[in-house]
Amino acid sequence: MPANPKYLTQSKWQRFAKITAAILGGYLVSVSFHLALASWFNHVNVIITMAFSGFILWVALMIVAFLAKNGWKIWGIYLLLTLIFCGIIYLGQTYNPITR
Q1: pTM of the model
Q2: Distance (Å, rounded) from C-alpha 74 to C-alpha 18?
Q3: pLDDT tens, position by position, 26-42
Q4: What does the UniProt keyword field contain (predicted)?
Q5: How far apart are the first and last CA of the chain?
């Protein structure tokens, strides 16, 4: 059964924003989250775990991007989360440097 057109996004810019937020934004959030964890915890274990949980988180963030009404708001949220995780990475590298 095809989707009802009244529930589909009509604007091409909104569609572009949702698709790019789902693919690129979700990937950035997923990777930065796991790198933030790796900067505070055992980095070997976190990176090995990221092979599975990173993909699951990325898919979940893709679904969230397509469920949102506004693609640009999702982009803003994903970029804000990525910047927060980058700050956590910076603090983790400052206080817990990897010396191997």
Answers
A1: 0.84
A2: 8
A3: 999 999 999 999 898 88
A4: Membrane, Transmembrane, Transmembrane helix
A5: 57
Integer angstrom CA distances of residue 99 from 19, 32, 38, 44, 85: 40, 21, 14, 13, 22
Side chain identity at 70, as an amino acid letter? Answer: N
The mean per-residue pLDDT over the stretch 57-63 comes to 94
Q: What pLDDT is recorded for position 7? A: 67
Q: Give the C-alpha separation, 44 to 100, whole Å.
A: 12
Percentages helix, strand, coil for the chain, rounded to the nearest 5? 80, 0, 20
Tell me the torsion sign for CA atoms 90, 92, 49, 34. Answer: negative
DSSP string, 38-83: HHHS-HHHHHHHHHHHHHHHHHHHHHHHHH-S-HHHHHHHHHHHHH
Name the burial class of residue 15, with classes exposed (0-12), middle (13-18) and buried (19+) by CB atoms within 10 angstroms of its CB. Answer: middle
Q: How many other C-beta atoms are found inside a 10 Å radius of the C-beta of residue 29?
A: 23
